[in-house]
Amino acid sequence: VDERSGYSLDVLMSDRVTAIEVDGPSHYARGTHTPLGNTLMKHRHLSNLGFDVRVLPYWEWDELKSKEQKKEYLRQLLTSTPTMIFL
Predict the structure, then answer these.
(1) Alpha helix locations (H) across 1-87?
(2) Beta-carbon neighbour count of residue 83 at 10 Å?
(3) Which of 42, 57, 60, 82 is 20 to 30 A from 72 via CA?
């Protein structure tokens, strides 16, 4: 549990700023890829607290078959421009 936010973070990188949220099926409306309100609120709160939030959706991860594909996915996730920007 992060002391600043009170949230449980899936992964907090060593820079103590980059947070990876691994969002499984319970974070999305049933049968869709539409995030639920509480998931969006958590991401927004973390972003507003200064975290660089990166989201790893379960269906994208599940498509990756090899360890090399998973490493490349994570590398791209961490080096891409953040998509979670909230004001």
Answers:
(1) 37-48, 58-63, 67-79
(2) 8
(3) 42
